[in-house]
Amino acid sequence: MDTFARFFYFLDMIQKSTLVGIVRFLLYVVLIIGALFALFGLFGKKAYRLERRITIAAPVDLVYDQVRYFRNFKVWSPWAGMDAEVRIEGKDGLPGATFLWSGKGETGKGSMVLKALATNRLDFEVATEKPYRSISPTWFVFEADSSGQTIVKWVFYMHIAYPWNGLAMFTDINRYVGQDFEAGLENLKRHCETMVPRLYAGYEVRAEECREHAYAGFRQQVPLAQVEIFIKEHLRKLDLLIRKHQLTPLGPKTALFWNIDSTAHQADVAVGVPIVANREVPFLVQRLFFLEGGPCFWVEQQGQLELNAAQKALMLYLEEKGKARILPLMVEYLSSSAVGQDSVRLRIGVRASPALLSPPDSTEMEVDTIPEANQ
């Protein structure tokens, strides 16, 4: 019996000794790893420069403002979907504005401050408190290329405190963290490009609801070669009548084209100014005519404009929207050409019906330019 007791006692001692040895071994491993971790931290980099860029088919000002204001982060930031409480302090878009977040796990807690803004650059400072403390500068640079697109460069100086920088030696920081910056720039590109108005034949078409207008003016059939002279002459007449009879126009002087027939070389054109419908007009004005209210569509041009190009833009837009134009074509003179042709600002538009009708006659509205308003 004593022999068995001694045997089990000896076996128990061996087990305890083995357990102690294992624990001691694991402790040594942990100490060695810790020592290596600390050693690597002494020699490892503490700062990494990350840079990504992208080209966005949108104006510089538009892209700049999407980055400048923290309120826009939710639509393009690569971290917008993180599970965290966020808030904005200070005047958004101005130096000192602060974006703060607080979440669990890797989301951590920190802030991003707008430090400075320049014409083509925004500087921020990112400070994290959890899961580790770090302060990192970051900035965006915006440049317009020759085609009017915007090149955005996002630079981030990532600071990793000791001894965590030791772990970074075993990670491709540029690839691992840089993929977030790439995702953010791709989000910014998609968002900004959807904000840019679509162009039709090079023009932006704007829609508005037009009121019914009564025009006092002059309308007649004019040889195509005389259209420019007719418009200039009657714009001057309208100016004289407005001053003499103290009329109060409800809008700019307007040329109205009901038809331009390149075959007959004739144009049904009018020059008028919108006034109060029930007001008496000077007897020198040949007629008072009305345009019904409804949806109108406009393009604008600075300087002398080719009428065909403007009309093409409007027709492309109406066709896409399933609408048909209602004549006349309206050309509003928004500014005087007294200081030169390039200073003329014109607005060209048509009213439209809800349903698309038969295609217009291609011979209509074929005139090369819209005359200036010499006043």
Protein model, in words:
31% of the residues lie in helices and 36% in strands. With 375 residues, it is of the alpha+beta class. It folds into two domains: 41-191, 2-Layer Sandwich (Alpha-D-Glucose-1,6-Bisphosphate, Chain A, domain 4); 204-353, Multidrug-efflux Transporter 1 Regulator Bmrr, Chain A (Alpha-Beta Barrel). The strands form three sheets. The chain has an eight-stranded antiparallel sheet. A seven-stranded antiparallel sheet has the order 1-7-6-5-4-3-2. Strands 8-9 form a two-stranded antiparallel ribbon. A hairpin with an 8-residue loop joins strand 2 and strand 3. Helix 2 (60-68) crosses helix 5. Mean pLDDT is 78; it is low at 7-11 and 357-375.
Index terms:
375 residues; alpha+beta; Alpha-D-Glucose-1,6-Bisphosphate, Chain A, domain 4; Multidrug-efflux Transporter 1 Regulator Bmrr, Chain A; seven-stranded antiparallel β-sheet; 7 helices; elongated; disordered C terminus
What is the gyration radius calculated from CA atoms? 36 Å
CATH T-level fold name of the largest domain: Alpha-D-Glucose-1,6-Bisphosphate, Chain A, domain 4
CATH class of the largest domain: Alpha Beta
Number of strands: 17
The termini sit apart by: 130 Å
Q: Total domains, how many?
A: 2
CATH architecture of the largest domain: 2-Layer Sandwich
Q: What amount of the residues lies in strands?
A: 35-45%
Helix and strand run: HEHHEEEEEEHHEEEEHEEEEHEE
Helical residue percent?
A: 25-40%
Choose one word for the global shape. elongated
**Largest sheet, spatial ordering of strands:** 10-15-17-16-12-13-11-14
